[in-house]
Amino acid sequence: MLKKEIANRLKEGPEQQLVVGPIVERLLSCGWKFEQIIFGKNEWKIPKTPSEASKREKGHSFDYFPVDIAVFESPETCGDYRHLIFVIECKQPNIDVGLQQLETYLSLEPHVQLGIWANNPDVSSQTLFVYKDSKGLSYPKKCTIKDLPLIGAPLSPTAVKLNFVDLLIPTKDTLHKTFSELLDTVVARDGNVTRREEQLDQLCNLILLKLDSDKQGKIDPNIEVYFRAFATEQGTGKYIKEKFEIFIQVYPDIFVTQSDQEIRFDDSTIHSVVEKISKFNFIDIGADTVSIAFQVLRSAALKQEEGQYFTPKQVIQSAIKLMNLQLDDIIIDPACGTGGFLIQSLIEMKDRYPDREKEISRWAQLHIYGIDKDAIGIKLTKAIMQILGDGSAHCVRGDSVLTHTWKTKYPHLLTNSFKAGRFTKIFTNPPFGAPLKIKYSDAKKAGLSIANYVDVGKDIELGLAMFNRCCDLLHEHGRLCIVLPETYFFSPSYRYVRDWVQERLKPVCVANVPMDAFQGFCRAKTNLYIFEKFDENKSNLDIENDTVTVLNPQTCGIYKNGSDRFVVDSTGKRTDVIDNELFRLSCKYLEGYRQGMFEVPLSMTYKYDVLVPRYYDYSLQAPFEKLQKKYHFESISIGKLCEDGIITVMNGHGSPSNDLRNGSIPYVKVSDIRNMRINVNPTNLIALELAQKFWRTSDGKSNLQAWDLISPSRASSNIGEFAMLVPGEEQIVLTKEVFVIRVNENKLGFTPFYLLWALSLVETRKQWQRVTLMQTNREDVGARYKEILLPKPLSPEWAENVSSAFKKYFKGLADAKKNFVLSTSSDEFEYIASVSAFDSDNT
To answer: Which among 233, 296, 371, 752 could bridge 179 via Cys, Cβ 3.0 to 4.6 Å?
Structure first.
């Protein structure tokens, strides 16, 4: 149609047909509108002199030079000399004559920024560009027709086209910073969009448009990408809105509502956003881009209260490897968020079958499903899936847990596509956390079987409800890979979870997820759990012979702030190799290798009622076993010492409120246990009367004794680090989160000093890492401290000899402390508690 309009506009003659017309077509392909170009029969007229220009301004006839092609800022300003931005002259066959002609035109048209001479429409033919600066000086530059400016591009001799090959892949730190700055820009500047949720949605629309631009640019890396800023804010805003209108027509099932189909930011905001992100390559980090953007923007929108902690790409990639996807698998993520697991599943299959792109695209359309309550999250999932190669058809909005609401709220979920028992592989990282719960009554209505394992009326944590729904969706013998807090799999308060699991699912593999993965959002310690669903007769369960593969990697390729983590060499320098032990072990697992992993009998996990990778990492026991072989001693556990009466283990007293800490008796917290000593904090002192209530003794004194050993038992990374009470330090109140070990009289050689020596060995200390697990977001050793092995004395004399330095040190401390306190208490000054905290009556 446009070709016909161009032909109708042209004058007679070969120059018009062979040069002007094709160059106009080229301008249209560069984004310029037909309505903003004057050419052909209605040639633009440039006044021959300044006086002739005055006549033009007054609307009078004037003497002029005709120009072959004139381009204006917009269709609305077409024909207004004040908005003429460049002209093209096709008449002169000689480049030198063309230069003179263009310089004349530029001097006579005050607003023109560029003049172009061309006599051949071929993209490789030589042309001359003459630029004019703000002072009226001209700058000639030899170019080709291919260099005709794109719509809105800066008209400058130093301007560089923004091609895909020039785009930079940003680091995660840069992405976080960029998206944070974008949000600040929107909040501070934009008057059109003020609600935080709408700001998030609008920013996501621009990010999706940027991804589409990158996708098209990647097809021909030497062509300029369309997502770029114009010279003016108005030009950028208008252009980006027009591009978005085209974009939503390509993906009509993503942009459904009226608000979805509009860029409502003002031109200034659009310009700022485009300027900040146009230089980056988003398409090659695809899902990560959307995920990080959503994390930053959604965090600001306070959605963290809804437990939306997004799964890092490194964890997702590892999960995909562990599950060994096949072409006959049907996949779902019932809490898909921004689609990380689903997108990576598609990428995995594309990488595995690079020559079968169309087949894999079709596979994705039929085999990938996703559900999420968040409308923006689903929009992002569908968009990124389509941009990267489809698979978005079955990603829908809905509540995958409360199935009894589907009929009224989400009827599209009632189809066979989402029926229970259909899916062979499920990936998910559900929202979790004690505050996130569904009502017991809703759980029963939704048919959640886990409700039968809790007290009647007790609400169900959302993460556990989602765990239940995943089991329901899973096909017999199908596998579920789920991110869950490890507290579910050892804590006595969650025993019911393990009971529920043992009736339905068999653990196949458990992988430690280092704390760094989610620490930027929460401190809940999680693991990757892979379960296989039982069939009706549990024929795929063999408790005596089945094993669970345990992976306990210490790194996942990122630090807690989300930045890349690199391998550090023996000199302490960072290399350029990403330190991602989780992914390396996952790849080995996929390939069938088990080196660096542990095969744990399923029966053992039932016996100890623990399903946490660290607990079964026997490498943490190896140093002690090596020490034992070297010195030929027998080992004895703390539990056995308790049974034999050699030691007594007691708990701490309690925790007085902050407003009650205004007395003279030291209150000792876990943070006060350092370097084998109890450190008295002068700001944590309570009254004697209050201390006696915590001590609960008949004589009104503490039940502690000199030479007792004290260690944190919970809420501390120093569990297993012991302090020794010296005489005079007994009258203190210990927080509940410690335990006290007292050595009783015995003939084996165990003394308080020998016990502290044994507990201070590096090889002994390593064992505590195995038994100290994460109770939600706090370290906890529970009763597992009884499993710690200690060297059994070869003889009392041997025990006395190896621990003599400890005895000498602490006896010396006791004497020095006594003399110090006696001296300071007899002078005329008053000191803080850490000076005078000493009970001389008990020395």
So the answer is: 296
